[in-house]
């Protein structure tokens, strides 16, 4: 008997020890680690994690108050800082954070919108490339450089659908189309986050501005947004869903009120949709001061109520308004905010810090040597040049003036942007002091032609002043030249945040300068650099060749020269409609037909038309020319009918019938002819960017599946309905080359 007891006891002790050892050595999950930190935190420390302040070095919004944020950091009362540049600064601040009681590392955020050290084309320009791989790579390089410079988090991609070019922030997004915008949103999130948080070259993405900020009434920034829920779901939410599906670590809500509720306190958006229906596990940060701005909205009486409204609606972190810092702990103590709400927000924030690896090594991103290497990597400039040239849109090329011969003798380079450097960067570059990093358009020509051609230069006029004093000099050099290149457009602070323009014509007297040069009779190429669609009808109607060059960043000059001289055949397509005049706005291609559609510009008698203006844009969505031509034929559908849940294969032959190799963005549009809610006259549902040598043909295929036929009905159900669909394949939304219909049958 005794022996049996001893044996049993030994076995028990053995397994008990085994379990204990296993228990300790078993790696704690991140959630277990978060819980163990949370248990140690005071209420003040928890609230601290829900605050983000801007560093004193730069501001990207109205300055509230500085106070001594270093004390907040030292006291473990701050979760994140933004606008802190470089490993030196971030290391210093992280060292201060490590003096706090719990040593919770700081998050460093920055608006790395289109490049960090290497400035890439603005996002609207990259959208014009329709090259998802190139766009993802651009974000990848931006993340690599930012992460090497101590940054953990970029406030990008901006995925706001925008149909009104008066709104200056169109430059930050992907334009007017939901499908293209969704594809690009996913590409950018994947680019920023790379192989996943925790990798040394990955930064957290931040899908913004949630939601519908781009629909500001009148194109006036921060203005109200009012739309049906169906419009919200159909056109404005999908890019955010695409970002969430791609794993975006964070979201940022928006300044605007949406249907009367400020987005920052909009629980329908943040809790019902994002954290509820979409099961988003990251955290939401407010936009600069937007928590406190709800007082101005007239939604709350004071910051105490603002903090209450925002935190209960799902806003996890307060950027810059200090409403959370000043009132959240009190709200919890008064039982107005359950501590569980604070715990949930803090857990979401801590989870990202664990996933980034900051608890294991707070200085992981603060390596001066890596910063030096990555911020001076010549490969990055090559990549920037590649996507820059792919973003350029050829709007006109009469008599094939372009590409220019490299043997050309004399070129007159005229215009206020021809030698400009900083203007090539756009509104959201990260502001490096030295401009020698940037290749101006003039330098791009010099690099391309060397001493082979004589370059004459005259500024001609300013960007926005009214002086014509420079015209004579410009005319004089034009008369000496074989060809004239005129470089016009916007200043980099004419598009961007809080840069709405009621008049989006070429600013100043730039178009008069073009007219004056045109009158010399010399062949003229116009380059237009801007952050938005502009209006330049006279130029478009008279000048031989026009390239829309957006703001292309560091490699602007080289990329433009590549296109001007045919080393790259332009392939860009407009991601936004270009209006004839502001009076048409908002104007976009995927509009409804109405009950009285105007068949043409003469058809105005009791028609949905203007009596004094065409209803057609100057340049439509998806438009862009090439130095070569493409033929579309042999359209084939695998079936003329499709059963719900099945697919149809669509194929056609694309042929390069010109003498230059080039890429064509073939666009697939669908129209649901009859449905329980009216449907757009056409909707982009797929596209391919196809490279062809001269004379080469390729078969292009698409698959029509249920997703492409679905829409939100009146009850906001994502459904399909039986009926006839028109399939259109074209080179732009209004250059349809192939058409066929098919029938969706019921079950
Ligand atoms: C700005 C912008 C937002 C940006 C943030 C931080 O006001 O609206 O896009 O990320 O503040 O700079």
List the helices and strands and how they pair.
Blueprint (H helix, E strand, L loop, with lengths): L1 H24 L4 H11 L2 H7 L1 E4 L14 H6 L5 E3 L4 H11 L9 E4 L12 H5 L4 H17 L4 E2 L23 H16 L12 E5 L18 H8 L1 H8 L4 E4 L3 E2 L2 E2 L4 H11 L5 E3 L8 H4 L5 H10 L5 E2 L3 H11 L5 H18 L11 H7 L3 H14 L1 E5 L12 E5 L26 H9 L4 E5 L12 H9 L3 E7 L20 H9 L5 E6 L7 H6 L2 E4 L7 H9 L65 E8 L3 E3 L4 E9 L5 E11 L10 E10 L4 E8 L1 H4 L1 E2 L5 E2 L3 E10 L2 E11 L2
Bound molecules: alpha-D-glucopyranose.
Structural summary, described in words:
- The chain is an alpha/beta fold.
- Among the domains are: 41-108 and 257-270 and 289-376, Alpha-Beta Barrel (TIM Barrel), CATH 3.20.20.300; 378-580, Rossmann fold (3-Layer(aba) Sandwich); 630-744, Immunoglobulin-like (Sandwich).
- Helices cover 31% and strands 18% of the residues.
- It contains 23 helices and 26 strands.
- 52% of the residues are buried.
- The structure holds alpha-D-glucopyranose.
- Alpha-D-glucopyranose binds at residues 60-61, 82, 111, 155, 208, 287-288, 497.
């Amino acid at each position: 008997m005794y022996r049996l007891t001893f044996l049993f006891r030994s076995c028990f002790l053995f397994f008990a020890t085994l379990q204990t050892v296993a228990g300790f050595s078993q790696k704690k999950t991140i959630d277990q680690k978060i819980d163990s930190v949370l248990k140690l935190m005071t209420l003040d420390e928890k609230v601290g994690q829900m605050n983000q302040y801007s560093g004193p070095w730069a501001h990207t919004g109205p300055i509230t108050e500085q106070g001594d944020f270093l004390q907040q950091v030292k006291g473990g009362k701050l979760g994140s800082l933004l606008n802190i540049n470089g490993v030196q600064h971030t290391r210093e601040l992280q060292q201060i954070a490590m003096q706090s009681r719990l040593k919770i590392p700081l998050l460093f955020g920055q608006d790395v919108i289109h490049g960090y050290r290497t400035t890439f084309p603005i996002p609207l320009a990259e959208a014009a490339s329709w090259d998802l791989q190139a766009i993802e790579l651009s974000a990848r390089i931006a993340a690599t450089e930012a992460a090497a410079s101590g940054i953990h988090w970029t406030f990008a991609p901006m995925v706001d659908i925008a149909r009104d070019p008066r709104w200056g922030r169109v430059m930050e997004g992907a334009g007017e189309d939901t499908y293209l915008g969704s594809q690009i949103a996913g590409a950018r999130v994947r680019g920023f986050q790379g192989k996943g948080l925790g990798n040394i070259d990955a930064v957290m993405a931040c899908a913004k501005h949630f939601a519908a900020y781009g629909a500001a009434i009148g194109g006036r920034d921060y203005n109200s947004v009012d739309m049906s829920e169906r419009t919200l779901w159909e056109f404005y939410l999908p890019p955010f869903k695409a970002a969430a599906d791609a794993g975006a670590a964070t979201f940022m809500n928006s300044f605007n009120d949406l249907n009367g509720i400020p987005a920052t306190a909009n629980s329908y958006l943040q809790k019902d949709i994002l954290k509820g229906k979409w099961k988003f596990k990251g955290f939401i940060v407010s936009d600069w001061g937007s928590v406190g701005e709800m007082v101005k909205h007239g939604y709350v009486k004071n910051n105490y109520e603002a903090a209450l409204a925002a935190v209960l609606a799902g806003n996890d972190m307060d950027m810059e308004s200090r409403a959370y810092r000043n009132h959240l702990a009190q709200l919890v103590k008064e039982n107005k905010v359950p501590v569980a709400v604070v715990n949930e927000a803090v857990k979401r924030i801590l989870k990202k810090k664990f996933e980034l690896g900051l608890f294991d090594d707070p200085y992981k991103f603060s390596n001066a040597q890596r910063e030096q290497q990555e911020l001076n990597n010549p490969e990055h400039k090559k990549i920037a040049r590649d996507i820059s040239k792919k973003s350029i849109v050829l709007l006109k090329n009469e008599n094939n003036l372009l590409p220019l011969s490299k043997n050309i003798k004399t070129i007159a380079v005229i215009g206020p942007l021809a030698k400009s450097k900083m203007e090539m960067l756009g509104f959201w570059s990260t502001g490096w002091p030295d401009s020698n990093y940037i290749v101006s358009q003039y330098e791009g020509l010099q690099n391309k032609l060397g001493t082979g051609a004589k370059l004459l230069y005259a500024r001609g006029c300013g960007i926005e002043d009214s002086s014509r004093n420079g015209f004579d000099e410009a005319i004089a050099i034009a008369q000496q030249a074989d060809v004239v290149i005129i470089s016009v457009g916007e200043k980099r602070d004419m598009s961007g945040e809080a840069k709405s323009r009621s008049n989006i014509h070429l600013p100043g007297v730039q178009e008069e300068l073009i007219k004056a040069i045109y009158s010399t009779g010399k062949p003229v190429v116009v380059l237009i650099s801007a952050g938005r669609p502009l209006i330049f009808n006279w130029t478009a109607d008279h000048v031989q060749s026009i390239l829309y060059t957006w703001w292309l960043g560091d490699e602007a000059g080289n990329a433009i020269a590549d296109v001007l001289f045919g080393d790259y055949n332009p392939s860009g397509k407009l991601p936004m409609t270009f209006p004839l005049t502001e009076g048409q706005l908002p104007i976009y291609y995927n509009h409804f037909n109405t009950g009285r559609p105007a068949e043409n510009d003469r058809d105005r008698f009791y028609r949905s038309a203007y009596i004094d203006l065409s209803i057609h844009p100057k340049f439509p969505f998806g438009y862009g020319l090439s130095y070569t031509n493409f033929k579309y034929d042999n359209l084939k559908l695998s079936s003329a009918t499709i059963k719900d849940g099945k697919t149809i294969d669509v194929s056609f032959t694309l042929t390069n019938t010109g003498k230059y190799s080039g890429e064509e963005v073939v666009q697939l549009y669908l129209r649901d002819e009859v449905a329980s809610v009216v449907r757009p006259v056409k909707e982009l549902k797929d596209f391919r960017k196809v490279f062809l040598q001269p004379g080469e043909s390729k078969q292009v295929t698409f698959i029509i599946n249920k997703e492409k036929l679905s829409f939100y009905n009146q009850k906001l159900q994502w459904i399909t309905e039986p009926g006839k669909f028109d399939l259109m394949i074209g080179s732009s939304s209004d250059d349809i080359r192939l058409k066929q219909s098919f029938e969706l049958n019921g079950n």
